[in-house]
Amino acid sequence: MRKSHPVIVRPLTTWVTIALAAMVFASASASPANAATTAQAATGPATTQPAATQPALTASSVPDPASFRALDRPDDDGSGILVVWAKPAEQPKDVKFVIQVARSKEDFRTGKFKTREVSPSPKILASTKPTYFGYSEETKGLYYTDITPAKLFCPEEPPPLTTEKLKQFADQNIITPEQLARALPVVAALEKEKPATQPVAFATTQPATAPTTARATQPATAPITRPATAPATKPALSPAEKAERKWFAPLAAYLEICLAEELKAECAKVNAEPYFFRLAVKLGNQTLYATRDGEPVLVEAGSRVNFFKWGKLNNLVLALIFSAIVVTFIEIAKRRPGLFIRKIAGLEAIDEAIGRSTEMDRPVYFIHGSGAVSDLSAIASVNILSHIAYRTAEHDSRIHVMNQEPIVTAVSQEVVQQAYTRAGRPDAYNPDDVSLIAYEQFAFVAAVSGMMVRQQPGAIFILGYFGAESLLLAETGSSTGAIQVAGTDAYTQLPFFITTCDYTLMGEELYAASAYLSREPRLLGGLRGQDVGKAFIMIALVVGTILLTVAVAKGWDVAWLRGLLKASNG
Amino acid sequence: MIFKRTIPLLIVFGIGVLAFVQDYVPHPWSTAFRDEMTTWTMVIGGFAMFLGLYSLSHMHVTRIRRQMPGWGYSIFVFIGAIGMIATGIFSDIFGPLAAGTKNEVDLFDWGYDNILIPCSATVFSILAFYMASAAFRTFRARNLAAGLLLAAAIIVMFGRVPVSEVVSGWLFNDRMVIPNLSKAIMDYPNLAAKRGIMLGIALGVISQSMRILLGIERSYMGGGDR
After folding, report:
1. Contact yes or no for A76/A307 (Cβ under 8 A)
2. I need a labelling partner for A27 at 20 to 30 A (CA). Which of A274, A280, A307, B141 fits?
3. Same domain for B145 and B211?
4. What is the complex's ipTM, to 2 decimals?
């Protein structure tokens, strides 16, 4: 429990708070952005004078007005506009580009525009976004910024839940008249209790005096945020009032979702409108506009809903090519079984490990990673588990499957039970052998490590996605003398497994395991397709490297090739 | 068979293809589909939590009942679980354990901050010792490859501590040879190996996804390798 401040400190803190607030207010009033906006609103665009210590902005610091344009962001859901302008001839230190956004030309005159300031840096060069601007040389001399109108013109938070809003919800049939009648006094009371600066909020941040549904909407680990202005003590509530507030809490949570949905719909409308843009450069308190015939240049653009992320076209083409290769080899494998597949030592060792465990009369441990069932590494682990459980049942040995994730636990139970049935030993299956151990990372480690030390398993399979628990588990397993086979696609954990385990399945080998172990021709075909894809990438890398080297030596323009070889995330 | 195999496989194929397409389509319908799927995942996850809880309880009850080795630890599982569930329920804003003033923390948060987090930190801290023992085993120069690994490890580890700059300055006439060499090892051979593994993983993911979407890989459904 934290101690409250001594009484003597309180006046001091009050004065400090007032002084800080005054400073913040003063700096906000005097901030260049406000100054420019105020001047703009009052007098229209004009050049402001430099301070005595600042270098003066000149015409060469202003981007070419002809280069200034705005366009739809090509790969989004209709929420973004790109604003582009040329690099000016001169860029004094600390200069900033100012983009002013308004709904109409008139709004610039009345001061109803929003401002976005951008500092020049290589990160805002158009050449850094070939997905938007292509690979031409021109892009190296262009700056851009991404504008989402809703972020400028919409409130960040949904409006607070007020009595007026409640009545609106009742008019829209979102709540019944009975609910309205019951909720109105509660909201009215909460409105009275709230501090002057705080909206009534129920689900997220909230004064300590108000009822909350924070538990319902926040993860269990998240601390409850309480505003600093909240009153220090709870008002005394009668049992009837408490009961009413308790009744209202879930309804408030639901209505807050409605408010958030309303805001989302409003933001989508705001994004869909056309907007006007102006460009200026700012240095200290000086502002110079990009002008034509003495008037600031105005450009107009609107955001459109797009149907395809063109920036990911190369990604899609490659995915389709590799998919086609895999499908082709699956078909080939169906007609010509017996494809040669390279040996994977870690998978060859599985039978040896289970056999040794059986001979030593020790259990086999199968430890799942922390991935959810939607992760491919978890699915791959379950596939391997199916094979291991089958072999374990055949050897009449015992398997313990340790899980961190409830759905993976349920799937693993089904898989192990089926494996025992296939092996002709359904009676040997014990549901307690496939169990959720702990949901928390280190609680899981502690539990599994303890079990390892007590039960001394003969073989340990550690498969799936792992974080910091990898070394803790593998090192404890190593100390028990068990044969350890690990496999993960978390490349940061691979060195730990290689160090401590007898065999390690690295990355793709984890995915290959199921096909490799089953020897089913169609699965092996998929595996061969994977290897051919890898060969394709290796050839592309070598050829690409040679081409780029030659291009640099000969001075060719191969920006497109460099872009193609770069992985694009759209 | 139709309910146990065909329909689930059709669902996997349909949702899998839609999820693939969704990644390339920015339209709000596509985003709405993704959000809907995420909600379904959370709902299913919530129900699965009960299954997990049942599985955990059943295993530990059996251990206690049969007094299996280490059964005493199972009692702590129930003490911890029941304790946190109870404080979670009663720390509700109207509950008897709720925080009274803005400076107070309710019992649930107190338990989380003062029991679970320190225990987790304790287990995590063991990692430092395990790293040392694992490094000791790995960095024994038994052959050429192990020798190279040892040399690279020494350069990288030494190059990443401030004293390496002092030693470099002293040995190489103020040139940062050791830190630069350490950086070069991380930036070139290490990064190349890492990217090689990542490319392999990407291909493995495509291959595995195709096998699952086409219904060739079905082990995860509990039906065995075929």
Report:
1. no
2. A280
3. yes
4. 0.88
